[in-house]
Design brief:
By secondary structure, the protein is of the alpha/beta class. It has 3 domains: about 1-145 and about 270-340, FAD/NAD(P)-binding domain (3-Layer(bba) Sandwich); about 155-265, FAD/NAD(P)-binding domain, CATH 3.50.50.60; about 350-450, 2-Layer Sandwich (Enolase-like, domain 1). About 30% of the residues lie in helices and about 25% in strands. The chain is built from 14 helices and 24 strands. The protein has helices at about 10-20, 35-40, 45-60, 75-100, 160-165, 180-190, 210-225, 275-280, 315-330, 360-365, 380-385, 410-425, 430-435, 445-450, and strands spanning about 1-5, 25-30, 105-115, 120-125, 130, 135-140, 140-145, 155-160, 170-175, 195-200, 225-230, 230-240, 245-250, 255-260, 260-265, 270, 285, 290, 300-305, 345, 350-355, 370-375, 390-395, 400-410. Helix 3 packs antiparallel against helix 4 (about 75-100). It is globular, with a radius of gyration of 24 Å. The termini are far apart.
Length: about 475
C-alpha cells in the first residue's frame, strides 16, 4: 500500500508513522518545516515563552515569600529567544528521527494533486516530480485569519507568528481577540512588563469555557495590569507617531488605545487552496474539506485530517485524526470519541476543560449538579503559592454520570486527562470518589470536587 501524506504537522507526521507501523510505504510532503504550525510557530514556542514569563514574574513578585531574594532580576530577551529556538529545533529533529526510523520518505516541497492517484511536488530547488499513490491523506493545516479593517497591514500589526520572535518586549501591546491565543500572549507579555490590552467582540474572553473558570482568569489578568474590553468592536488601526492607534467602539462609546504593537488573534482558517482539490472532485463546505467519521472524503481513497477538515482546530485532535485515518486506510476500523477532547489554555493560571460546561449541559436538556473545590484548600497549591484556582465537575443529576470537568490552577493542563478518561469510560462521580488520589498533589482537588457534588468535600469548612 503506497500512501502519500500532504503536510507534516502534528496530524500529518503522526498519520505517516501510524501507517508505516501498519505496513504501508509512506511518502510525506511538507513545504516548510516538519512539525507544522504547532511545533514551529504555535504550541511549543508559545509555551517556552510562557514558562519563562511565569518564572520571571514568580521570582520578581513572590520570590521573597519563598525565601529567595531577587532584587536585581532581569530578562535577557535574546537568551529567551535562543532557548525557544533550541527547544523547537530539538523537537523538530526528533520528528525527523521518528520519520527516518519508520522508513518514511520525506520530500520538502509543495504538493498539488493531479488526479486521485497522482500528486506533483514542486521541490525547494524548483524541480518537479510526480508521485503515484494508492491512498492520500490531506493534512495541510490552517493559517491565521486577517480581518478586513483599515490599517490591518500597517507596520507593527502582527500575528502570533511575529509575536513569538519580536526583537524586544514591546512597551505596550493591544491584542485583538480574547480567545486562547490572545489570552496566552496577554499572559506572556504582561508578565514581562508590557502594558497589555485585550479587545474582544464577544461578551466574554474564552467564551467556550465554563464561566466560573473564566471569571478567575479574568481576575488574574486584571491583577497583572491587563485591560480587558468585551463586547467591543474594532473599527480601524492608524499610525500615531511611532506607535499605533486602535479605534474601538465599546458599549456604544468610541475610544482609542495607543500601543507599540497590535496583535491579531481572531482565529484560524483551513488551508485548502492551490492543492488541486478540483482535480480530485473532493467536496468542501465553504473553506473546509468534508469527511466522515473515518476521516474519508467523498473520494474513496482520499482522506483529510486536522485543521483542513474544519473540525476542532487543536494539535492533539489532528494527531488523533491522523491515527484514525491511517488505521482505516490499512483495514483497521477506527473512530474518535470527540467528547473526550480536552481544551487547554496555558495562561497563568492554566485552564483546562473537557466535556460540557454547566450552561451547555443545561441547554442540552440535562438536569445537572456541580461540585467545586477551591485550591486554597489544596495543600500542594498552597505550597506552590498558587491557590486562586478551582476544580469543577458537571454531573447528570439522575445518573451521576460525569458530563464535564473544568480546572483553573497549577497543573490544570496535565490533570485534565483524568476527566477525559472519565468521559471516555462514561464514569460516574462515585468512580472518582472511590479512586485514591495521591497526597500531596494538586490532583487531590479533583477528589474533593467529586465529593463536593454531594456536598461532602472533606477539606472545606462546614457552613
Amino acid at each position: 500500500m503506497k500512501i502519500v501524506v500532504l503536510g507534516g504537522g502534528p496530524g500529518g507526521y503522526v498519520c505517516a508513522i501510524r501507517a508505516a507501523q501498519l505496513g504501508a510505504k509512506v511518502t510525506l510532503i511538507e513545504k516548510k518545516h516538519l512539525g507544522g504550525t504547532c511545533l514551529n510557530v504555535g504550541c511549543i514556542p508559545t509555551k517556552v515563552l510562557l514558562h519563562t514569563a511565569d518564572i520571571y514574574r514568580e521570582m520578581k513578585e513572590h520570590g521573597h515569600n519563598f525565601g529567595i531574594e531577587s532584587d536585581n532580576l532581569q530578562v535577557n530577551w535574546s537568551k529567551v529567544q535562543s532557548r525557544k529556538d533550541t527547544v523547537v529545533n530539538r523537537l523538530v529533529n526528533g520528528v525527523k528521527t521518528l520519520l527516518d526510523t519508520n522508513a518514511i520518505t520525506v520530500i520538502n516541497g509543495e504538493g498539488r494533486f493531479i488526479d486521485k492517484n497522482r500528486i506533483e511536488v514542486k521541490e525547494e530547488k524548483g524541480s518537479r516530480k510526480v508521485i503515484q499513490f494508492d491512498k492520500a491523506v490531506i493534512a495541510t493545516g490552517s493559517n491565521t485569519i486577517k480581518i478586513p479593517i483599515p490599517g490591518i497591514d500597517l507596520n507593527g500589526v502582527i500575528t502570533s507568528t511575529e509575536a513569538l520572535s519580536l526583537k524586544e518586549v514591546p512597551k505596550s501591546l493591544c491584542i485583538i481577540g480574547g480567545g486562547v491565543i490572545g489570552t496566552e500572549f496577554a499572559s506572556i507579555y504582561s508578565r514581562l512588563g508590557s502594558k497589555v490590552t485585550i479587545i474582544e467582540k464577544l461578551p466574554e474572553i474564552l467564551i467556550n469555557m465554563d464561566k466560573d473558570i473564566t471569571e478567575v482568569l479574568k481576575g488574574k489578568l486584571l491583577e497583572d495590569g491587563v485591560e480587558i474590553y468585551t463586547e467591543t468592536e474594532l473599527k480601524a488601526i492608524d499610525k500615531e507617531g511611532k506607535d499605533l492607534k486602535v479605534s474601538i467602539v465599546s458599549n456604544g462609546d468610541a475610544e482609542t488605545i495607543i500601543a507599540e504593537k497590535v496583535l491579531l488573534s481572531v482565529g484560524r482558517k483551513p488551508i485548502i487552496d492551490d492543492i488541486g482539490l478540483e482535480n480530485l472532485g473532493v467536496k468542501t463546505d465553504g473553506n473546509k474539506i468534508n469527511v466522515d467519521h473515518r476521516m474519508k472524503t467523498n473520494i474513496e481513497n482520499i482522506y483529510a485530517i486536522g485543521d483542513c477538515n474544519g473540525g476542532i482546530l487543536l494539535a492533539h485532535v489532528a494527531s488523533a485524526e491522523g491515527i484514525v485515518a491511517a488505521e482505516n486506510i490499512m483495514g483497521k476500523p477506527s473512530k474518535i470519541d470527540f467528547k473526550t477532547t480536552p481544551s487547554c489554555v496555558y495562561t497563568k493560571p492554566e485552564i483546562a476543560s473537557v466535556g460540557l460546561t454547566e450552561s451547555v449541559a443545561k441547554q442540552q436538556g440535562y438536569t445537572v449538579k456541580t461540585g467545586a473545590f477551591p485550591l486554597y484548600g489544596n495543600g500542594k497549591s498552597v505550597i506552590m503559592g498558587d491557590e486562586s484556582g478551582m476544580v469543577k465537575f458537571v454531573v447528570d443529576s439522575y445518573t451521576d454520570e460525569i458530563l464535564g470537568l473544568h480546572i483553573i490552577g497549577p497543573r490544570a493542563t496535565d490533570l485534565i486527562v483524568e476527566g477525559a478518561l472519565a468521559l471516555r469510560l462514561e464514569a460516574t462521580i462515585d468512580e472518582i470518589i472511590t479512586t485514591i488520589h495521591a497526597h500531596p498533589t494538586v490532583g487531590e482537588a479533583l477528589h474533593e470536587a467529586a465529593h463536593a457534588v454531594h456536598g461532602n468535600a472533606i477539606h472545606l469548612p462546614k457552613i
